[in-house]
């Protein structure tokens, strides 16, 4: 009887896949302690998108959470985090000094192993980060990013393709202690998984642990796990209810049951694990669990949206009142994948795919190239497995005013002064913040939102099942000791005598903006063309502007969108401020 070990992903990928990582550490860390007592000694504890989400949505310092996690589990338990090669834990690629700092800081804050992948499976994007991880005294798990191509597409993501990539990694002398195949979209075919593991075993030998990771998003995750185990995988990634199945990994209990009567046995005390699941259900009972997180989607093999990104994107669509567009966006994603060069649909490429599909739905096919997607097809994130569509490359070059490149990503970033350690130090100094290694890395990975958190202006964006709906009436609300008198009527809120227009999303999130007065004379109101959050205001009241001049920047679906002046004139009134949420049609500026 062969014992199959598992990595518990519930407290990282489980939260990412089901809640967009919007779970407060105080609610789940006690369950981590229970899991250790139940015999679980291998956890995915952070990294990936959960690093940013701690600052963006949970108003927590990810490094503090990592320290607490280590303290709870003790010194011997393996704590593993996720990194993305030259991107480490940021959506954008980083310079050498930030990649090296990532390894040092994660070692300092209790991590044992870093799983390291590149969405393009480009050896040049993994070599330096792997060397840094090993130099810092951490174990390095080399990870090959996997998926299936949409039906009919050819050129990558076969067993032979993964074998060829592994050979390139070995030839590049990338050091690794274990090997993982990670299918974030859960679209791999079981037969390909079996053949891939078999080929990998011949290349790495009998002693190198091989791990397999998938999601149930497309409905074949468990079948792929069984195929991987039969082919010789030593470890699989499993989650715990209520954050298992659907967009996440199969449940520990599900695989335990599937292996009954076979020559394999899951290495766990299943009764103890089931008790932990009950505790986790209780700990998360008040959180809003999106219905799409619980289901498989037969459309996903055509449009490989990863489980870890799916709910994060649907949550943003809900925030912006666009959830009705989700089906169209997923359908549009197929063409984006087919023409993008077959980078694996995993962060950050999965986000590039989704953002481009979003733009194609909202603004028309290829009318607006998403910056990340455009830079990817132009080569700024490394070499795609196959050449992207020539017409799309041309459109991207024209819209982004960039030429295609074959230069290494690390070389490009090391020449960019805005990605240097010195640059981030200056940002901290300008904000009167302590210049520490942690703060430098937070700003590098999180940008302006990192500064927002560090200056104490962060907000909690966690979603709970029941949120007060704006149905009318008067309320007295106290926030940080300050009292606000609030009256609600129809689409208007009166807060301490000042009027705001309000809207309520499907999960009860209230978005308020100053209620404008009607323009007079020849005044023109510039309205939001898309929902989003105001991140920059580029003009002031009284400024003279030209037609087409940028007035402000909105962030929508993690992309920047410029709002332009509809005509030349003078800025008479600005209706919004930095940080405001707006919906399509909301007034932003009044020009005369």
Query: Order of strands side by side in the largest beta sheet?
Result: 2-3-4-5-6-7-8-1-9
Runs in which pLDDT lies below 50 for 5 or more consecutive residues are: 467-471, 504-518
Strand fraction equals 15-25%
Q: How many E strands? A: 22
Radius of gyration: 24 Å
Can you tell me the CATH superfamily of the domain at 518-592? RNA polymerase II/Efflux pump adaptor protein, barrel-sandwich hybrid domain
Described by strand count, sense and barrel closure, the largest sheet is: 9 strands, parallel
Mean pLDDT across every amino acid position? 90
- What class do helices, strands and sheet pairing give? alpha/beta
SS element count, helices: 20
Shape descriptor reads: globular
Q: Into which percent range does the helicity of residues fall?
A: 25-40%
In CATH, the architecture of the domain at 518-592 is Beta Barrel
The CATH class of the domain at 518-592 is: Mainly Beta
State the distance separating the first and last CA atoms. 80 Å
- CATH topology of the domain at 518-592: the name is OB fold (Dihydrolipoamide Acetyltransferase, E2P)
């Amino acid at each position: 009887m062969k014992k199959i070990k598992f990595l518990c992903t519930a407290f990282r990928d489980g939260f990412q896949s089901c809640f967009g990582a919007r779970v407060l550490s105080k609610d789940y860390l006690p369950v981590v302690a229970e899991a250790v007592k139940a015999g679980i000694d291998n956890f995915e504890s952070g990294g990936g998108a959960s690093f940013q989400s701690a600052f963006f949505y949970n108003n927590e310092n990810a490094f503090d959470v990592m320290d607490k996690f280590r303290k709870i589990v003790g010194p011997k338990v393996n704590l593993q985090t996720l990194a993305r090669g030259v991107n480490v834990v940021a959506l954008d690629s980083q310079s050498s000094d930030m990649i090296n700092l990532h390894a040092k800081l994660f070692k300092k804050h209790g991590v044992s192993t870093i799983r390291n992948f590149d969405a393009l499976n480009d050896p040049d994007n993994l070599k330096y980060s792997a060397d840094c991880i090993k130099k810092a005294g951490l174990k390095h798990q080399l990870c090959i990013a996997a998926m299936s191509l949409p039906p009919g597409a050819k050129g990558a993501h076969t067993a032979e393709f993964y074998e060829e990539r592994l050979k390139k990694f070995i030839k590049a002398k990338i050091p690794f202690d274990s090997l993982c195949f990670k299918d974030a979209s859960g679209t791999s075919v079981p037969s390909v998984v079996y053949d891939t593991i078999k080929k990998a075993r011949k290349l790495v030998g009998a002693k190198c642990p091989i791990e397999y990771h998938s999601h149930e998003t497309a409905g074949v995750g468990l079948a792929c796990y069984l195929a991987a185990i039969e082919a010789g995988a030593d470890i699989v990634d499993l989650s715990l209810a209520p954050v298992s199945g659907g967009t996440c990994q199969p449940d520990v209990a599900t695989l335990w049951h599937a292996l009954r009567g076979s020559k394999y046995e899951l290495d766990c005390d299943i009764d103890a694990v089931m008790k932990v699941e009950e505790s986790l259900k209780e700990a998360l009972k008040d959180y809003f669990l999106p219905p799409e997180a619980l289901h498989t989607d037969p459309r996903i093999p055509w449009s490989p949206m990863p489980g870890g990104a799916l709910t994060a994107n649907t949550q943003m669509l809900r925030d912006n009142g666009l959830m009705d567009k989700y089906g169209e966006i997923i359908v549009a994603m197929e063409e984006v994948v087919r023409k993008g060069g077959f980078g694996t649909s995993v962060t950050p490429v999965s986000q590039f795919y989704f953002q481009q599909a979003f733009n194609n739905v909202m603004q028309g096919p290829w009318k607006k190239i998403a910056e990340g997607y455009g830079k990817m097809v132009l080569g700024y994130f490394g070499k795609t497995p196959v050449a992207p569509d020539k017409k799309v490359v041309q459109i991207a070059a024209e819209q982004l005013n960039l030429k295609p490149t074959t230069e290494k990503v690390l070389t490009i970033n090391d020449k960019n002064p805005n990605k240097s350690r010195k640059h981030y130090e200056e940002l901290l100094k300008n904000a009167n913040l302590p210049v520490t290694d942690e703060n430098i890395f937070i700003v590098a990975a999180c940008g302006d939102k990192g500064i927002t958190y560090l200056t104490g202006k962060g907000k909690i964006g966690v979603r709970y099942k029941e949120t007060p709906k704006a149905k009318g009436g008067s309320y007295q609300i106290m926030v940080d000791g300050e009292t606000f008198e609030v009256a609600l009527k129809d689409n208007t809120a009166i807060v301490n005598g000042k009027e705001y227009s309000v809207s309520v999303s499907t999960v009860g999130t209230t978005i308020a903006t100053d209620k404008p007065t009607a323009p007079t004379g020849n005044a023109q109101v510039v309205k939001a063309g898309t929902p989003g959050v105001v991140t920059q205001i580029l003009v002031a009241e009284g400024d003279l502007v030209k037609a087409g001049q940028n007035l402000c920047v909105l962030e929508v679906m993690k992309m920047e969108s410029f709002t332009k002046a509809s005509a030349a004139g003078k800025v008479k009134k600005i209706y919004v401020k930095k940080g405001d949420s707006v919906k399509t049609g909301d007034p932003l500026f009044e020009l005369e």
